[in-house]
Every structure is written in C-alpha cells, then in structure tokens.
Design goal:
Number of domains: 1
Strand order of the largest sheet: 3-8-7-4-5-6
Largest sheet: 6 strands, parallel
CATH superfamily: Histone deacetylase domain
Radius of gyration: 18 Å
Order of helices and strands: HEEHEHEHEEHEHEHH
Number of helices: 8
CATH class: Alpha Beta
Length: about 270
C-alpha cells in the first residue's frame, strides 16, 4: 500500500503508477473492499448460511493487484483474498475464479500459479491492459485439467458472439476442475458504452454469463449447488454499469438462466 511514500508526501498522496494513487481514504476503502469479499465468503460458508449467492459491490477493484504489487486501480486482490479465505477458514479445498472483466486479471492469475487447488479462467479483450493473459495458439491442444485458461475477445460487434463461445468453454473447464466454491470477478467494462475498451457486450450478456455459472454450480452438485459469490471489478460508465449490475444480481437471485436470457444467445 506504499506506506512509507504515503507518509513522506506532504499531500498524503502516493503515485504507484499513472492509474493507481494512494490518497486520503484509499487505505480505508481498499481494506473495506477486501473485507467485504471475505464477508461474502462468510455469508456463503458459515454453518448457518442463508444465501446461495452474494455480490460484493466494492471499489477499488482488485484483479490487477499482484501478490507484491498494486497496479491498475487495484490495491488488494479482493477475489484472490476471498479464494484463499474460503480455503483456509472454511476448508473449501478447490476454488475457481471466473473473470469476465474486459481486462486480464494478471494479479489473480499470479496468485493462482503454483496452487493446484485454484482455478482461474478469464475472457478479456485482445491487446488490452495490461497486455497479459495470452491465448494459446488455436492449433494447440490444451488438457482439460489446465488450471489457468485465458481466452481473447475481439473488438467490435463480433465480441458478443465470441464471448458466448469462450465463456461456455471456460465453464466446461471449471466443471472439470470440480470446485467447492466459485468466485466471479465481475467487471462490466466490456459493455458497448464503456469507454475503457472496444467490445460490444450488453447488460443481457452479463445476466446470461452469470446464469451460466450458477447453472454449472447446480450441475456440479445438484442436491446442494456450489456456493457462488461475485466481486465488482471494472466498469466506468455509470449508466451502463448500473444496468449491468442489476442484471447480474437478478441472475444471482434467480439462481439460473431465465428463458429470455437464453433466447438472446440461440
């Protein structure tokens, strides 16, 4: 969190990179965001749980924060912290993180490397910040038990069609991994109206994508679906962000795909 530099700055401001500044209130906000992600785990994993899904509506986001580096608007990796918290405090041995933010979650992936009990899957715009998460050549044969899966989205109108294909693939790989807890890194900046990228997703796409994850949770354990939480990542045009979150939460509440959402992708 750049403690020494923050103290040394007369204005109590520390510039980590052009996108990431520590200023008045940053520490509190970042700690509350990570704490909210852990509280979401508590709500889903405690013996007296009353919820099947939880959305942590937090800022700052987290998926760019690496184990020893804050970057890209992110200070603590909220999704990664929640994953380890679920493992260490509730014995959820295998945890999956699915990320539909338009940017690759380099920090989340870095935290998953070397941990066979973590799965990370990301669908992100090709060439976007931070230019990590390369997609393997189409001709390569990837084993189904791969724990890190990155897939590109093209810019423009075709991004919607490709998103459906790639998201379905990630979910199939997650099902093969057989997690005991699922986290969605829910960034909504692939929306057509968002200024941070050039994809053309709509709020209905996010509702569909969320419903697909919950459907997979039921497939994995029909009698007691795998708990699923989501944590807010990107999204920078407030009207589109608001509508997308509403659709995302509607799918979380319903616990599965609605006919109207499915029909938009047939």
């Amino acid at each position: 969190m750049c403690t020494e530099a923050e103290t040394a700055c007369p204005d109590h401001e520390c510039v980590i990179d052009p996108d990431t500044k520590v200023m008045a209130g940053t520490r509190t906000a970042a700690l509350h965001a990570a704490g909210a992600a852990c509280h979401a785990v508590d709500l889903l994993c405690s013996p007296t749980r009353r919820y099947r899904s939880v959305f942590a509506c937090v800022r700052p986001p987290g998926h760019h924060a690496e184990p020893n580096r804050s970057m890209g608007f992110c200070f603590f990796n909220n999704a990664g912290i929640a994953a380890r918290y679920a493992q260490e405090h509730y014995g959820r041995r295998r945890v999956a993180v699915l990320d539909f933010d338009v940017h690759h979650g380099n920090g989340t992936e870095a935290g998953c490397v070397g941990n066979e009990a973590l799965f990370y899957g990301s669908v992100h715009e090709e060439g976007g910040y931070p230019r990590t998460g390369p997609e393997p050549p189409v001709t390569s044969e990837e084993p189904m038990d791969q724990r890190t899966v990155n897939r590109y989205l093209p810019s423009g109108e075709r991004s919607r069609e490709v998103f459906v294909e790639r998201w379905k693939e990630l979910i199939q790989r997650m099902i093969h991994f057989a997690p005991e807890f699922i986290i969605i890194s829910a960034g909504f900046d692939a929306h057509a109206l968002d200024p941070m990228a050039s994809c053309q997703l709509t709020e209905s796409d996010y509702r569909w994508a969320t419903a697909e994850v919950l459907s997979a949770a039921r497939t994995l354990r029909p009698e007691d679906p795998i708990p699923c939480m989501s944590v807010l990542e990107g999204g920078y045009f407030v009207p589109a962000l608001t509508r997308s979150i509403v659709e995302h939460c509607a799918a979380l509440i319903e616990g599965g795909a609605s006919p109207s959402v499915e029909s938009s992708h047939r």
